[in-house]
Amino acid sequence: MDDPICPLCGRPIPKGVPQSLHHLIPKLKGGKGGPTVLLHDICHREIHATLTEAELARDFSTVETLRDHPRLAKFLAWVAKRPPGFRSKVPGKRRLR
Prior knowledge:
Layout: E1 19-23, E2 36-40, H1 41-50, H2 53-59, H3 63-68, H4 70-79
Antiparallel strand pairs: 1-2
Organism: Tritonibacter litoralis
Protein name: HNH endonuclease
Keywords: Endonuclease, Hydrolase, Nuclease
């Protein structure tokens, strides 16, 4: 069986690599029970370090719009060159308000 592919960075997510489900519409904004995507944990953390729940619900509720965000696009180009199990700390409170 093939490993799932992270829809953001395009890298495989092998068994044992930190992963998480991202609600395309945040649960706090009405997305409970809505569509989710399986991501590398590092990709998921970068989304939440970059965007607020309101921004996610309003403007970034698809994989395509997330990939098009300038900061996320830069991050994804960088992380795509790393091995699937690559881990790095994402500093908190990096959002520009």
